[in-house]
Every structure is written in C-alpha cells, then in structure tokens.
C-alpha cells in the first residue's frame, strides 16, 4: 500500500540510521499480520456463530474449514470488479483505500510487550483515535460515490453513528488518561532517566498498570463498559450494524462494491475490531501484564477474548433502530461517561 | 434496485414539490421483503411519507388452473398457495368439497387432520418468528426456530412424505394413517415446545430490551383500520377483536376442543409477537387433546367416489389459516370442473392495509411491520 | 429513578440473552453432515414414482390403462402400450415420467388399478441438464421377453385350470363327490391372488409403520 | 460405466437420465480419461498444445468452488427449503456456501428457488446482470427447470424454466427438493467449477 | 357437516343477532332485485341477493353501518350465458356469523361503482377484478393492474382466455 500515512517526524529521533528498511519491514509485518488476522477472525466468527446456532460452520475446506476464508479471499481477488455507470468515480474508487489504510497505521503504535512496539509515540492514544476517525470519511465517500440510495442511507447513518459514539468512546478513555496522570506521578525508568508517565501514551498506560499490579478495569468498570459498547458501535457491528443493516439497506454503504473492493471493506471491519480491542486491552486490561506467560501472549489473549465477546454480542441481539441508537448514545452513554469522568476527577482530587 | 421515480399514477405517491422528498424502491429482491414483495416508498430522510406495495411478482395463475382441471387435480395446488401453512389450505380445500358433496369423513381422519393442521400452524408461526427476528437483525433465534420447525417437518414427513407442500388430504379423508410412533413423537415435541422452547424464546427475544424497543408502539393497526381493510388473523386479534374462524364458524371438529383465542388490545408489533407465541401454546393444547382423543377406525370412506361433480350452485367455505380468514368460493355447474374457484387469502387483505400503517414510520420500522404481519407472497399473488 | 430502572432492567435482559446463547455455544450441534452422513428417510417419503417389481412375476403390472396419465395434474406421465402378441394381458411399452414437472401429489398412486406404482426414495437428485424425463420401464426391459413367455405359461395354466374347472362343473352334475376337490383348487388360485394384493397392501403398510 | 451399459441396453433412450441417487463423487468425465488417444495426464493429445491448465487456474477454481456465496433471493416455496438448507440441520455454511449476500454485486451464485412469474423475469435478468463474473446459477425445483406443476398448455403467468432467462449450471428436480438435494446440487456445481475447462456435462 | 355453533367468547346473544340480521336483510332486500335465504350448512352463507349495479354503494352502506366486514369482492364471467359479468360481494359480521352474498350484473365494457370510499379493502379487490376480468370501477382512486404486469394485454380469468384447448401445439 503506497498511500500509507507518513510516519511522524519524531520517528526519525527514535530510529537512528536505517529508517526505510525498518519502515518497510514494519509495514510488511503489519500487513501480513493484519491479513492473517482478518482471515482468522472471519473464520473464528463463522465458527462461533455456527456453534451458538448449533451448527458446525465451515467444515470442508481444510481442517474444520480453517482454509475457508483463504478460499473466500482468493475468490474475491479473482472476481470481476463491477463499476456501475452513474457513480462519482474518484470517490467510488478511493473509498475502499481510505477505509482500509488508516487501520494499518494504527496497529503500529501498540505495545505488544514492554519492549515490543513499532512506533513509540508520546501521543499514541490520540493517534489511534484520529486514525479511527478517518475510516468514516471513507465510508461516506463509498455511500455518496455509489449513487445508490441504500448506500447513501447507510453512509449517512454511519457518519451520524460514528461521530456520536466517538464521544463516549473518548470520554471513557479520558477517564483512564486522567487516572494515569492524576495518580501519584509515577516515574518510569526509561533509558536510566526518570520522567512522568503520560496518560495519552499507550505504552505508559500499560506500564502503569503493570507496575501497579492491577488493571484499570477494576477501578473504572463503568468506563470499560461504556468503552466496549461504544467500540462495538464504532466498528459498525451488530447490534449497532445499522450502516450495513442487511435486512433494511441491502448491504448499506458497500451495496455497489464487488470483488476485492468489497473485500477491503470487509477487511477493514475486522481490522477495526482488533484495533478497538487492542485499545481496550491497553486501557483497561493492563496490556501485556500478566503472570507466567510472556507479554505478547497475554496481550493477544486479552485482545482476542474481547473480540470473542464482540462476536458473542453480535450473534445474540437484534439490531437497534437508528433513532434509538442515537438516543441511546446521547441520553445514556454520554451522560454516563461524563459523570464517570467527573467522579474520577473528584476522587483523584480528594485522594 | 432501480431508483427511477415512481411512474405510476397513484395520487398519494405523486411528488409534491418538496426537493427533499425522494423515492426508494424496496424489492422485489430485498432480503426482508419475504420473497418478492415490492414496496415503493416516498420518503423524506429516513421517514416514510407514503408507501405503496406492488404485488404480483409471484402470480402463478392458481385460479385459472382451477378452471382448467377437475376438482381432484387442483389438490396439489392448494398446498402451494400458502406453502407455510400448506396443510391447512390443503385440508381446507378438501373440507370445502366434502361439505358441498356431503362426503362423510371418518372420525379418525378428522382427528388426524386437526393434529396435522395445528402442527402446521405451529411450524408456520415458528418460521414467521424466525424470519421476523432476521428482519430485526437477530440471526440466532432464526436458527433455533428452524430446529423446532425441522422436528415438526419430520413428524409430518413421517405421514405425508413431504416436508413443505403436503398433498395429504383427500376428499373424504387423508392419504396415510398415523401410528404409535407418530403419536409418541408428537407428544415429545409438545412437551419440549411448551416446557423448554417457548419459555426460552420469551426470555431470549420477548424480554430483550432491544427487541421490545423495536416493537412496542410500532406499526399500530387500529381496530378501525383492521375493519376497513378486512384484516384478519393474528393481526386482527392483536387489535382486540376475538375473531377466529375456528370459533366464529366452527368447521371440522374444532368445537370439540378447549382452546382460547388469545387477543391483545395494543395492535402493535409487540402485540402481534406475543399473540403468535400464545397461539402456538394454544395450538399445542389442541394437538394434545386431539392426540388424546384419537379414535380407532378408517381414514378414508369405505367407497371413495371416483368422480367429483358438486351440484350446481355457489359455495363459500372458510377456515382459519395461520394468517387469518381463508375462504374458498366455488361456483359449480354440476360438472367435475369448477366454473370459478376464488381463493380469498388473508395476507392479501392484511397487506393492503400497509399504506395506512406504514405512513410516518422509519425505514427500520417498515421492515419490522411488514415482517410482523406475516405475509406469504404467493398466497397474495395466487 | 424510572430511567435508572429502565437502563438496569434492559441490561439484565441483555445478560439473560447472552447467557442463553453462551449455553448453546457448548451444546452439541444438531447438524447432519449430509454427504458424509445420509438422512434416514421416512417410510412415507414421496419422490418420483416408480413401478413396483412383484415377486411372483418378477416384473411390474402396468396394463397401460392411462388412469394415472389422465389424473396427473402436472401432465408429467406419458404411457404407451396395449395388447402384446401372445398374451392376454395388456402391457405398457413406454412409461416415462418427468420428475421436473411432478408435484408429488400421489393421485396417480391412488388411481392405479393394479397397484403397481409407488414412490421412489430419490432425495438428492441434481444434474447438469434440464431433462428429467425418467424411463420407468428401463429396469424391466431386459426381462420383458422372459416375462412374456412366463406370462403366457401362466395364462395357459390359468386357462387350463379354468377349463378344468368348467369341465369339473360340467361333471359336477354327474359326480358330486369330485366337486369338492375342484372347488378347493379354485379357492387356492383365488388365495394366491389375494396374497398378491395383500403383498402390495403390505408394502404400503410397511411404509406407514 | 453406468451410462455406457444404459446405452447398450435401451438403445434409443439414451437421452433419459438414469434413475440413480446423485452421489458426492463427480459424475463428470475428465477429458481423455479412459479413452483412446489421450496422454497419461488426461489431456487429449490433439488438444495438448492448446490446453494447459495452470496451477493458478486450478487454485482459483478450487477457491471459487469452495466459496459460493448465494444471492439472498427467494421466489416461492423452494425458498423455504433453501432457508432450511442454510439452517442448523443442513448447514450450507459447511461448504462455504452459507454466506447469503443481499447485494447482487457480492454474490457468486443465484439459486432460483421457486416459480418465476413473467412479471418477475425482467427483474431476475437485471439481478443476473448485476452479478460480477464468474457467476453461476442453480435451478432449484421443478418450476425453475421447466415450469413444474404450474406448467400446462396456455399458462399465461410463469416462465417455463430459468434457462429462458439466464444460463443455468445445475438443475435440481423436486417439488420442493429436500435440502439435501440443494446441497447435492451445490456439490455438483463445485465439481463443475473445479473441472474448469475440462468439464464435460 | 353442520355442527352446532360453539359458544363464542364475545357477548352477542343469538336472539339479538337474528333480529339484527333480519332488519339488515330486509333493508338490503328492498334495495335488491331479488333476495333469497340459503342453507348455511350447505352453501356457507345465509343470504344471497341479486342487485342492480347502481344500488351497490347504497347496499354497501347498509352493511358498513351495521358493522359488517367486506370479506371479498370477486367476479364471474357470465358472458356466455347472460352476456354480463357478475360481481360478487361477500359481507360477514365478525361478532356473529351472518354471511351475505350480493350479486350484481354488469356489462363487460361498462363501469361499476367503486366502494373504496367505504371499505378500503375493496381497493385491491377491485383492482384485482379489473386485472382479471377487465371490469372497470368508477371512482376508484388508483385503478391499474395489480397482479399482472402493467403492460399485459389480456384479462386472465375471462373464459375466452387461456383455455387449454386453444393452446398452440408444442412441437
């Protein structure tokens, strides 16, 4: 992918010397991981949904169908790319890329273990949220560019939903940020130098939890719940999957996309899932921290467990109506997250 | 997915100069249009100003076929008119001919018919339940319902040999006798249904806050609308009118069984859901009584007629299908080919009320409402 | 307060739903892995019709009366046949049935006077062309000549017996004591026929069981 | 093989399909196999310079065969059996064919499930044109093969066979076919796709 | 097949019903050209009327006011026997069983008065009659084809259309 966002300038400070080599290797690794991850997650989702529904799910391609999603991907790759006639060409063609690219950039900033992070940026949490917000533009481009009323409706729903749910998402994350910054200034040993922990850096949040020995979910359960709900909504998954609401809007914003372009939307959905789960892991579940096993195992174990939860959600609940979805956000989640934030601040002040 | 503006001269659908008004065409291929229903919606944003159902995409000329063949040869058509309650339609047609021609049906056959019809009603409601949830975006309950439905299909398959389009009824009886295994399986199914499955559906779906939010107060059919549009079946009963053909004009041996006619007064989607769940329970009750009272004896008259020539005249016979009042109107001229055979199908009238009900709802509600009135397109289009 | 109760009540209902689906997750799937496991078809199962092979004659008993062809609502049966050289019995020479047209109503089986039709148990047919016209006589054609010879013998035997019976009846006037024996023979023949009818009925009943 | 012996026995009735239960094994004949004038790898000698089957093509065909996403599209009675085939007891998803796509742009196979009325025919044509290649069609049930029980002389309402509208690959008879039959039909289609250009119907 | 009516759950009593049915019956009979009682056990309806097509709206009004449900509207092609189309209306009461059949003859090319202003149910029924028999209704808000395609050039249920014996011979 040539249109990766360029690395921030601070990268140069961090990596001495062979910048481009490092960049290439990191990108390839991320791409490879994300592809494998999406293939695995789709297979996992199909298996989980099948077993919840007392079916077997994919069985015939490979052992218990593990290669099913590989077959799906190959097929989508070789499928004709239908381009409808009356579309807005630039928007239509650019949309999958815009949806797809930012999610790759986000992964680079996660600390899989204390010393395993591709990009250690001070504002990594903010970056993740910023990149998460770009995808929505892609969705709107897809809906608008397709010249299809279903796609347009889906895109408009998607924009309204994502923008609304970003508020509780960030507010609940802020509670953690406040917690890190507001706790007795934890000093972290970094290159033999002491510096205050930054609440807006993913790695610092994880380090704080690791050092304290407990996870923030214990002191911030409400924020964790709000984050989880908002994250499901951000990834447009059931019960908040109204932008693509199959039974209402046919396929929503990607109604007119076929073959690989459709696959990119599909891919982006599952990659988004892993990103929001990784953020949750770092914010509330201590990142890599855990006994016995090495850090990355804990990190990915927690992440995939959260994803499993999201899948469990999806296959249990019916879909909300659009106005209910919005009113749930504005009348329940946002007030609750504000109250939570205020209480956190108050308690920190009193301590 | 044509996005052409509505070309039809329906005055309600005409554009009224508002630039924000647009038309959305749902169907005939749309995941929640239950086959081939097409809805043309006049909308502003997500709000529906006017809706016009367009039907006929499953028109198969049943009535013309009836005029082209003798009474017996129309039998297989009956279960294909409404394939979800094919047994009820099939038996209803037999009952109509029996009534016209004074054919005595053996007791045992009557009981078997009741069992088969009520099982069919349960399976139809189960399928409705599943697809309705599918429309609302809940996929898992759909598969649970199909599990139960498979059990009913297996039970019916063991006597009729078909899973869906039963030609089980014959003029005067049924094609095959039931045995003790059938009875035992039916009993086991009833027990499972009442003790385990229906309560589970209530907890998984009926109590679910998202589901209730989606259904309560949505798509209210008032008693007046129901009356003016000739809405029958669960949709009518959800408005508080206890009209069920099985009680109002008892046919077969329904007057021998104890069962309630569940009603609701709200008339909304939730009422229709509750009502159908309760109807399944009542149907279970009827089946249980019929299984208990199943007499011994023949299943067909000793000497079935070879040719069926109803005396000249016109006849009307009504039954309660899973969707409402199903009437068979037959005009005979004394030959073995009907002059006219009109099927008064309930979904036709139920769907015709949609323009009134859908007005000023949201797109998502449209799906829920159309799903909740339980339409079967080939039954409407015939 | 009502607001809080609504939110909490809603949350509880969601957890109830989650607990139900979680329990289902660990139950055994109900899937029948079709090509690897075959379904057990009900004895009543209806598929395309076929001709019954009777044990006594080792062949079908279609006399080409066309009753099924006339009653068929889908016009899917096509029969030709008639008198066969050498035997009294009529035989079908062509019996095809279009599975794609058939509605599986069973009216043909009801009307068959010789009870030689039954449902086959085909359940997973699929093919690459639209021609589903099936030749029901196919499995009998090899044997048809032999059947005709045997049938001729049977008919001759029956005729002989009939003759004998007639002769006996004639003789009955003269010799009363012999009559009993002949009558018994006649009964035996009849019993044989009944047995056959029973057999057919039995097959059908087996289907019901 | 079976078809050969049939030819020997009944002579003029070769066009009639044999009354057999469709098996899982491919019933297609690989070009050249078991016939004279062929090379060991199954390609007719005269075709060798022109026909070479790349590994990639075989791989893609295998992927396509195992990832048949049907269009969510039901017409009448058979649609219910199609749903049943997707439900827990039969589970089309085992073969990768359980991903029903509501948008024609993302579907690979159109399963005609039910009677095609004349009013519906143009819609079906449009949907078919919206599907991206390579695409396949399965005619499920008598109605879509040749009109089924609704066919009679002078029938005005239905299209007598889906192949009047689109090219159909697999035909499944029955009224309605059991879900097993639909699965068998999908397996047949898989065989056909896997065989690619070697396919002989 | 005639079985005693089971006690319905609603609170109408038998006597009241009969009285109501009689009053309604007589007022409708006045409007109709002829009226007959029918044996419900055999025919499935209680009264049958033959009315002039002009009086249909008024008769319908009577049923509407008495709270009767319009069960169906259909038509019979009687051009071979009588040269007319015969419209058939059925009315029934939901609370007490009392089914009335109203016949009205109309020439095939004439217009019948629509009753959609009273019963919206008639909207689709009349469209279907138009679609299948070609009888047009005056005052119908949206009279167009309903089951057949818009461009169909035939009326499907007319007796002179679609007969098996007219079918072109297949080769």
Strand runs of chain E, count: 7
CATH class of the largest domain in chain B: Mainly Alpha
The CATH superfamily of the largest domain in chain B bears the name Cytochrome-c3 Hydrogenase, chain B
Query: What is the tally of helical segments of chain E?
Result: 4
Query: What is the CATH C-level name of the domain at 17-109 in chain E?
Result: Alpha Beta
Q: Which structural class matches the secondary elements of chain E?
A: alpha/beta
Separation of the first and last Cα atoms of chain B: 24 Å
Number of domains of chain B: 2
What does this molecule look like?
The complex is a heteropentamer of chains A (351), B (382), C (209), D (201) and E (171). Chain A is an all-alpha fold. Chain A is built from 13 helices and two strands; from the N terminus they run ααααααββααααααα. Chain A has one domain. In chain A, helix 4 runs parallel beside helix 11 and helix 11 crosses helix 12. Chain A is globular, with a radius of gyration of 21 Å. Chain D has a domain of 121 residues: Rossmann fold. The radius of gyration of chain D is 18 Å and the shape is globular. Chain E is globular. In chain E, strand 6, helix 4 and strand 7 form a beta-alpha-beta unit. Chain E has a five-stranded mixed sheet. In chain E, strands 6-7 form a two-stranded parallel ribbon. The N terminus of chain E is likely disordered. With 171 residues, chain E is of the alpha/beta class. The chains are: A mainly alpha (351), B alpha+beta (382), C mainly alpha (209), D mainly alpha (201), E alpha/beta (171). Chains in contact: A-B, A-C, A-D, B-C, B-D, B-E, C-D, D-E.
Topology:
The complex is a heteropentamer of chains A (351), B (382), C (209), D (201) and E (171).
Chain C: H1 2-25, E1 49-51, H2 67-71, E2 77-83, E3 90-98, H3 107-111, E4 117-119, E5 133-135, H4 138-174, H5 176-208
Antiparallel strand pairs in C: 1-4, 2-3, 3-5
Helix pairs in contact in C: 4-5
Chain D: H1 2-10, H2 55-65, H3 77-86, E1 109-113, H4 121-130, E2 136-140, H5 142-146, E3 170-172, H6 179-195
Parallel strand pairs in D: 1-2, 2-3
Chain E: H1 14-31, E1 34-37, H2 40-43, E2 47-51, H3 56-65, E3 68-78, E4 84-93, E5 100-106, E6 111-113, H4 121-133, E7 136-138
Parallel strand pairs in E: 2-5, 6-7
Antiparallel strand pairs in E: 1-2, 3-4, 4-5
Jot down its keywords.
heteropentamer; A: 351 residues; globular; disordered N terminus; D: 201 residues; Rossmann fold; three-stranded parallel sheet; 6 helices; 6% strand
